[in-house]
Design a protein that fits this description.
Keywords: DNA-binding, Transcription, Transcription regulation. Helices cover 45% and strands 16% of the residues. It has 337 residues and is an alpha/beta fold. The protein has two domains: 170 residues, Response regulator (Rossmann fold), CATH 3.40.50.2300; 143 residues, Rossmann fold. The strands form two sheets. The chain has a six-stranded parallel sheet with strand order 2-1-3-4-5-11, sandwiched between helices. Strands 7-6-8-9-10-12 form a six-stranded mixed sheet, with helices on both faces. Strand 9, helix 13 and strand 10 form a beta-alpha-beta unit. 38% of the residues are buried.
Length: 337
């Protein structure tokens, strides 16, 4: 087993210097820190979390890793951050937020410096290259999101299939004979998020079970330019009883504006359900019937699991799905037959 002494020998420093680099308790020159970190990476060294706990060196810091590419809806991320930090404060813990997308190397550095007791990892892809590294960090890691292979890590998310079913059933109850699912922009589709494919599959299954036709509109570019083709769907909406499902706040907004510009009254001529939080649903000019992904409940569940692991809780890792919730508002309330 690789030890701190091995790291010290390779880096040409004392073992105490290695400890200071990992704990951050003393100022170390950038050049020395770089040598120590390079040696740790070369030797694949990670400090033993159990040994730290026995030595009374728990840091009372939780790492939150959330990637923030340009297409991220920061407002949708805030309920997660607020709930995770609130749950941490209840345990007298601080949170260090890591937003730079450094992949596995970023996780290794975060755990290798011994500044966190556990990590919450967000923005999980179906095939996420960080997970194999996360499994071997020596600190508990909980995923918010469900990959194809969790690599033995606990996962928490909302029940995406149930959310899709709730949305379709609400539209069918308003008399919609055809469902239009507003899909993702090219940049979001390329990210490989599993819940996007799961939601689309859930909508398809629920529409089929209800005997409703399904059309998916996928923008061919990011932003408003990619939504220009939605005008073609508007012509069909006038001819049929159509229900629209929009998965993001941006899609909801662009759908409602496009329909309004063509004289289609949402909530009367067409029903619409959005997948978004209650606060977002109520922020539109016409309050939107929504299925909430319950980000605060998801975050609370993730933190309960995380602290159980930090406290020594054992058992097999598992997937925990939080039930979504539909709230009827003006965009479906007036469309009933």
């Amino acid at each position: 087993m690789v030890t701190a002494s091995d790291v010290a020998k390779l880096a040409g420093v004392s073992q105490s210097t290695v400890s200071y680099v990992m704990s951050g308790t003393r100022t170390i020159s950038p050049a020395t820190r770089a040598r120590v970190e390079a040696a740790m990476k070369q030797l694949s060294y990670h400090p033993n979390a159990g040994a730290r706990a026995l030595a009374g060196r728990r840091t009372n810091v939780i790492g939150l890793v959330a990637r923030l590419p340009g297409n991220t809806d920061v407002a949708a991320l805030l309920p997660f951050i607020e709930t995770i930090t609130g749950s941490s404060r209840e345990r007298d813990c601080d949170v260090v937020l890591v937003t730079e997308d450094e992949g596995p190397a970023g996780l290794e550095r975060l755990a290798g410096r011994a500044i966190v007791d556990a990590i919450v990892l967000m923005d999980i892809r179906r095939d996420d290259d960080r997970l194999e590294t996360a499994r071997g960090l020596g600190v508990p890691v909980v995923l918010i999101g469900v990959p194809d292979d969790p690599h033995g890590l606990d996962c928490v998310d909302f029940d995406v299939r149930m959310a899709a079913t709730l949305a379709v059933e609400e539209l069918v109850s308003t008399g919609s004979e055809r469902i239009v699912l507003v899909g993702e922009t090219p940049s979001v589709r390329s990210e490989g998020f599993g819940f996007i494919a799961e939601f689309a599959a859930g909508v398809s299954a629920a529409a089929g079970a209800a005997g409703a036709d399904l059309t998916t509109y996928e923008p061919d570019a990011d932003g408003w330019p990619g939504f220009a083709g939605f005008a073609r769907v508007v012509d069909d909406i006038r001819a049929q009883r159509v229900g629209v499902i929009a998965r993001t706040p941006q899609a909801i907004d662009r759908t409602m504006q496009t329909l309004a510009s063509h004289g289609v009254v949402v909530g009367h001529d067409v029903s619409l359900v959005g997948l978004c939080t209650d606060a977002t649903a109520e922020s539109f000019r016409i309050p939107v019937t929504n299925v909430s992904p319950e980000p605060r409940d998801v975050s609370r569940q993730a933190m309960r699991i995380l602290f159980d692991r930090v406290d020594g809780g054992a058992g097999e890792a598992s997937v925990h799905l939080v039930s979504p919730r539909l709230t009827r508002r003006a965009t479906t309330g007036g469309s009933r037959p």
